[in-house]
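Hi Y.,

Following your request, here is the sequence exactly as I used it, all 366 residues.
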Amino acid sequence: MTEWNKLSSIVQGDISYDILTGNIYDDYAEIQIKAYSEKWPEFDAEISYKLNEEYGWLDNINISNADIHHIERNRLYGLKASKYGTSNSLRWNFTKNFLRAGLNPKVKVKILPRTRHFSTSNQYHIATDLYGKQDIDVFDGTDTDKCIGLNNQGQAIILDGIEILIKNNISDTDYVYRYNWLLNAEHAIQTPSGTYIIADTGKNMVIELPENLGPKIRSWDIDSPVFVDFSPMQETLLVTTNGALDKIYEITWSELDYGTTLWESNYSFENPKSAKYKENNTTKFAISDTGNNRVILYDDGVSQYSPLYGYKTSSSVTSFQETTAFNEPFRSFWGEDGSVIVTERKGKTWDFDDGIESSSSSSSSN
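Below is the corresponding structure, written out as tokens. Let me know if you'd prefer a different format.
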């Protein structure tokens, strides 16, 4: 903890920031993140550190005295940004991480994605952004375990590829229920009746399990399923696949009939990541066409696909040239009022070590 540098990063032109360090004391170091943006007044970040390659990156960094809304372990929510730069002061209590002055750990900063909520009131769309623990936890990442949401009882649903776990809290080491006969599970949901439906890409199968994650109830074979959505009203399942055809399927899913194809897409997608029923309307779907950087709103009543390529971040944006394009939309939700919530998947971790050789690094929008 003896060598500090002024480091910079740019997040696809939306946010740029400097990492500055102040005084280093025997038990803590002063860190300042000065962020610049004409689009986003706030953003979220994640800070990790490591001493050597043997132990890898650690997320238990002890941060306090932060000028932000909320701290969740190593995640900082509500960092400030402005056109001319806003400083966010942090204090790293490194002795609480069993470090001492004189060491030189590696530290990295990762911009976290945010949910963007936009209205369909005009062709450009007015966007606002949301943030919070649950908005971020639904994304996939480099960690083996990922929380994909909460079940009907408020417990965490955890996927690690080969198993699904139910925990009372995300950080718990113990689990309530476990099923470990998966190969590469990409997504899972819980139905109102309590059962779990899982998209297992590795097994090329959609699987339904009981609430206690006991023996499977039923399954359906399909190439590379990555996302599922269930309609309890009509007992149908919307399945997104990343196979050779990149298709969306709607199938029956009930005790009397399951796996019968009711509809399949006939549109050119590239690496779609989700398809979800519109809120209280099973004839319309929101599809994340991730590889083509667009969101598709589909109306089954008229067999119409309506692509959305971007949005504007304020009402002052008046031209198409000023709109912001989607960057790998990962999840799309179509509200009953016509609004759409989109989360973008793309992100790049910026490593402090890289900044010593290069003062800036290109990264994707949050």
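The chain has two helices and 33 strands.

Thanks again,
Q.
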